[in-house]
């Protein structure tokens, strides 16, 4: 992305204000209990609730082009049968705190202080932002989504002073040798491409006060 375009993105994002639409996924006591089980199985922690203290903002793409189809992947409380890459790790369905449409519309899907299942090893200390797109593992997120993500990470920093990092899903394994990494199963890893280095480079060029992934 050119320096001129980055300048205009910074200028526009400083003036832009976003409505965060409340679009809750199903999160009954059943999902809470499944989350507790996941925490116990994968992190070795026995918890009374599923509240988190976020230190990382984790950026994703859905690998699906449509918002409704993307949202549908998170609705069920239990994991669908078509996820053989992760279903061996528990029946808790994936979840994320935010989803950003192609036009930059922001949806909050779940409470910000609840743990979602959106990344191996780092769920217990991260807030997930899913961006609609990336089908076929193509880096095709929009400028509108970039602007919305700039707004969101700054908004979240104001909400949670504990947040230090903004990283892409493809960078999650950079944390394996840090105190933030909690996964106990050394065989539970998947290869991720989202949202891609270009989007993260452009995002970091337009935000301040956040650390990059430790191996960056």
Question: What's a concise summary of this model?
Answer:
The chain is of the alpha/beta class and about 220 residues long. It has helices at about 5-15, 30-45, 65-75, 145-160, 195-205, and strands spanning about 20, 55-60, 100, 105-110, 125-130, 165-170.
Topology:
Blueprint: H1 3-15, E1 20-22, H2 29-43, E2 56-61, H3 67-75, E3 98-100, E4 106-108, E5 126-131, H4 143-159, E6 165-168, H5 197-204
Parallel strand pairs: 1-4, 2-5, 2-6, 3-5
Antiparallel strand pairs: 3-4
Helix pairs in contact: 1-4
What report would you give on this structure?
This protein has 216 residues and is of the alpha/beta class. The protein has a single domain, classed as Lysozyme-like (3-Layer(aba) Sandwich), CATH 3.40.80. Helix content is 29%, strand content 12%. It has five helices and six strands. It has helices spanning 3-15, 29-43, 67-75, 143-159, 197-204; strands at 20-22, 56-61, 98-100, 106-108, 126-131, 165-168. A six-stranded mixed β-sheet has the order 1-4-3-5-2-6, with helices on one face. A hairpin with a 5-residue loop joins strand 3 and strand 4 (106-108). It is globular, with a radius of gyration of 16 Å. The two termini are 19 Å apart. The model has no long low-confidence stretch (mean pLDDT 93).
């Amino acid at each position: 992305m050119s320096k001129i375009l980055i300048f205009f993105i910074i200028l526009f994002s400083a003036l832009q204000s976003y409505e965060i639409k409340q679009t809750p996924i199903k999160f009954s006591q059943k999902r809470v209990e499944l989350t507790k089980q996941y925490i116990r199985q994968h992190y070795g922690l026995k918890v009374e609730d599923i509240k988190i203290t976020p230190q990382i903002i984790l950026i994703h793409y859905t690998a699906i082009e449509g918002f409704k189809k993307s949202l549908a992947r998170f609705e069920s409380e239990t994991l669908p049968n078509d996820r053989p890459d992760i279903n061996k790790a528990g029946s808790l369905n994936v979840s994320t705190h935010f989803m950003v449409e192609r036009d930059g519309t922001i949806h909050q899907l779940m409470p910000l202080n609840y743990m979602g299942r959106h990344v191996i090893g780092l769920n217990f200390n991260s807030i997930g932002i899913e961006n609609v797109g990336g089908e076929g593992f193509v880096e095709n997120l929009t400028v509108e989504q970039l602007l919305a993500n700039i707004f969101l990470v700054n908004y979240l920093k104001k909400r949670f002073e504990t947040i230090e990092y903004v990283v892409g899903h493809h960078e999650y394994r950079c944390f394996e040798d840090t105190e933030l990494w909690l996964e106990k199963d050394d065989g539970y890893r998947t290869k991720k491409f989202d949202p891609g280095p270009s989007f993260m480079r452009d995002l970091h060029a337009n935000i301040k006060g956040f650390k990059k992934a430790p191996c960056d």
